[in-house]
Amino acid sequence: MYPKIAESYDGQSVFMTGGTGFLGKVLLEKLLYSCPGINKVYLLVREKQNATVQQRIQKLIEEPLFARLREERPEALEKISPIAGDISEPKLAIKTEDEQLLAEEVSIVFHVAATIKFNEPLDVAMNVNVAGTGRVLNLAQKMKNIKAFVYVSTAYSNTDRKIVEEVIYPAPASLNEVKKLLEIGITEEQVKELIKGRPNTYTFTKALAENLVADNHGNIPAVIIRPSIVTSSKVEPVVGWIDNWFGASALLTTISKGLNRVILSDSENSLDLIPVDYVSNLTIVAAARCECSKNVTVYNCCTSGNNPIKMGHLAKLIIADSKEHKFNDVPMPTIHFTQYKWVLILVTLLFQTIPAYIADLFLLLTGKKTRYTKIQAKVLFIRDTLEFFTSNNWSIRAPQTIALANSLSSSDRILFPFNPTEIVWNEYIPTYCQGIRQYLCKK
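The structure assignment produced for this chain is given below.
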């Protein structure tokens, strides 16, 4: 019989990377709010030229995300202890005394930090996502009371497979091979050949990092969480909360505003969305249930394999929501799906590019500053960036995640919901749209 999830954290101290990012902030808040017995949360934070780590933490806890903690349990915020460091630097650039403190105190490690830029140069992505993971794992191996090492990867680390199970697949390349190529110099064409089957250096390096954890965790109980496209919070800590345009938010906004009329996809393709609080809850529960094994447990935190939302259904929901709240900039927003590049180019030209030039010509003739062609350039950049993910279709399965959710007590299921089959899309998507309007567009 397992103890309640919150009780598993009683007296425990946690070390977290990526705690100032989107998922990291939600994870931090949830740990402090729902696990009141937790001892300390040590956050790896980079010092910036205009802000010390203490100033960055102070700014962090002033965000709307931490409102319920400030109002109901302000003393919990004092459990946050910043550790100055940098994931991209040798030994994480942590002071010796801080390293000794972490080695003595910490029992659970959440490694969330990563560079998520799709177009990141390979050497940068390797240093942060792969070598950085190795640095955090090395630190964890020095911790005397380590109980769990949780690595947050991505569900798209294996895009070369149409069906993705909760297993670690063979590395797309050997680390030594990649290191040698970087040392002698590698061209863009060589990078494309190296990452074959994957769209960018982000997904490639995440796959390598998974294998690094699997091969080097030793006696440390380790878990890998693979979230898909992380979206606004479903419930906690604030309904619909989101703080960035990454993932699907920018693309869905261009559709809802009527600025994007065509997309390379099929209406029957799934877009694998997962609310950020579901990812956070799974991460917390997975650490509490982590057991020592030579194998690393993998949890796919996603919906396409068990509760998919089709592109056509998603588009109808966001367009209906846009019309209801008068969010559209262009009359009658609509979207056309095609699997043909020439149709994509033609429809874009007729219904987006030419109208944008006509609108700007009108502004020019009336003595106003042009803007519509610049807006269209941004719209096309967003669409092109996500084209690989909209034009392909995966079934990312999550039987272990669902089994873990079903194994919880009724009270823990309520406190830490993450079962993807329980998401009702007709209810959640309007919440997501409201979050975009409220927190990103400030409307």
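Interim note for the steering committee: The first strand starts at residue 13 and ends at 17. The chain is about 45% helix and 10% strand.
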